Amino acid sequence: MKLFSQLFTNLDWLRGFLPSKVNVNYLERARACLGALTGILTTALLCHHLLSSQASLPFIIAPMGASAVLLFAQPSSPLAQPWSLLAGNMLSALVGVTCAVYLGSTPFAAALAVAAAIAAMFTCRCLHPPGGAIALSAVLGDSAIHELGFRYVWLPVGLNSILLLALAIIFNNLTRHRYPHQQQHDNKNVHKTADITPIARLGFSAEDVNQVIQKYDEVLDISPDDLANLFAQTEMHTYRRRFETISCADIMSRDMVSVNYETPLDQAWQLLRKHKIKSLPVINQDKQIVGIVSLVDFMKHASLDHYQGLDNKLKRFVEQLFQNQTGKKRIVGEIMTTKVYTAQDNAHIVDLVPVLSDGGMHHIPIVDQIGHLVGIVTQSDLIAALYRARLNDVQMLDIDAK
Fold first, then answer.
1. Boundary (domain end) residue, out of 208, 227, 242
2. CATH value at residue 374
3. Claim to verify: residue 30 and residue 103 sit in the same structural domain
4. 340, 365 contact by CB (below 8 A)
5. Domain assignment present for 384
6. Is 142 found in the same domain as 254?
7. CBS domain location, by residue (predicted)?
8. Which of 8, 135, 240, 375 could form an SS bridge with 117, CB 3.0 to 4.6 Å?
9. Beta bridge partner(s), residue 264
10. Pairing state between β 363-367 and 373-378
11. Do both 150 and 37 map to the same domain?
């Protein structure tokens, strides 16, 4: 029994040699491969042309292959950002050449070059794994590299890095991978005040994530902001799983008040006042939403969103808003907002939480599978639904406890 126990223990230890499954679909894998092919091939061809006069000089160095893996397969990694690539590669080359000049091509020089390169990259916040290979190649390279001396930092390392980076910026953005990867600032609210967003007030904060990372005390190949975003998405996924039966169709208002493009502004204004609402969906003949008109649109059109001369603006608002200079009635289509956020009727209500809380929106039109307007969800609707869902959850826990 003891032998079997030790065997299984060893198997568990051996499993640690295998990484976790890569949750990337085949389209993304093909995109990364195509990016690396394009980046390395174009860089090699350009450098071969530019350095044709120096036949002994390598037109592209092997560590660029490792840089390509990061740039095209992991473009969101902190190790793959422009500063990490350029400064990491060139600083490592400088360290490697220095070790080669003063210590020669010795095993100690090779080891010191890699260690010193890592220390330098840590100090300059440009950790880039291929930098270690570049430092090593500067020490153990052939005579052509040694003859270059400190020129090796610029040619070919600097030239290779700059060209590969330019191609990565173009390719990643063309394939809908924002690069350089921008840090998320989800805790900034739309009202431009110091308060963090409503969702973040009772959950974990970016500072909480940073504190945990500091205690972890190990380099993570993901930025703190991205890690916090993954945690937030996990919370939302958990909520969706627990209350999977509640959709937008369950909580939306179905008896809607709407207008069309040609509706006179004065009629739309009266509808807002009569029903004590703040917005009206604008639909076409096929009941598809083409815009939305709100109190804010009325105020902006009359320049009432600026305080100066408010009395005169109010008077002009009453006199001119509902008709033009020729006396013809103005219509909703002139002032409506055409960029409208909508949600599917079968979408889970948890999808609306970030939009209605942190996004500053107060109402979301709901459409069916063919784009027809079928309802509208307001902040009040969402609050009531979340309260009822939570109340039911507590009641079920009480029943289970009994």
1. 242
2. 3.10.580.10
3. yes
4. yes
5. yes
6. no
7. 252-312, 336-394
8. 135
9. 331
10. antiparallel
11. yes
Asked if 227 contacts 208 with a C-beta cutoff of 8 angstroms, the reply is no
Q: Are 213 and 222 in contact (CB under 8 A)?
A: no
Residue 208 and residue 316 in one domain: no
Q: Into how many domains does the chain fold?
A: 3
Tokens of 168: 């990565």
- Rounded Cα distance between 168 and 36, Å, is 9
Same domain, 204 and 261: no
- Could you give the 3-state DSSP secondary structure of residue 299? helix
C-alpha torsion sign, points 378, 383, 389, 392? negative
Clarify whether residues 255 and 371 are in a common domain: yes
Report the C-alpha gap between 66 and 68 in whole angstroms. 5
The pLDDT profile of the chain, 402 residues, written as one tens digit per residue, is 555 555 555 666 666 677 777 788 999 999 999 999 999 999 999 999 988 877 778 889 999 999 999 999 999 999 999 999 999 999 999 999 999 999 999 999 999 999 999 999 999 999 999 999 999 999 999 888 999 999 999 989 999 999 999 999 999 999 999 999 876 554 555 556 666 666 666 566 667 777 777 777 787 778 777 777 777 777 777 766 666 678 888 889 888 889 999 998 888 888 988 888 888 999 998 889 999 998 888 777 655 544 455 556 555 655 566 666 666 778 888 888 888 889 999 888 888 888 887 777 888 999 998 989 999 998 888 888 777 766 665 554 455 555
d(CA 304, CA 316): 10
355 and 361 Cβ atoms separated by less than 8 Å: yes
Model pTM? 0.69
Domain-embedded: residue 1: no
For residues 98 and 78, give the distance between their C-alpha atoms in angstroms, rounded to a whole number.
Answer: 27
Asked if 73 and 151 sit in the same domain, the reply is yes
Distance CA(79)–CA(234), nearest Å, equals 24
Q: Which domain holds residue 338?
A: 249-398
Please tell me whether residue 373 adopts helix, strand or coil conformation: strand
Residues 146 and 71 in one domain: yes
The closest of 160, 220, 168 to 32, measured between CA atoms, is 168
Query: What is the distance between the alpha carbons of residues 5 and 1, in angstroms, rounded to a whole number?
Result: 6
189 found inside a domain: no
Angstrom distances, CA of residue 265 to CA of 136, 234, 269, 315, 331: 73, 44, 6, 16, 5
Within 10 angstroms of residue 202's Cβ, the number of other Cβ atoms is: 6
Between the two ends of the chain, the Cα-to-Cα distance in Å is 43
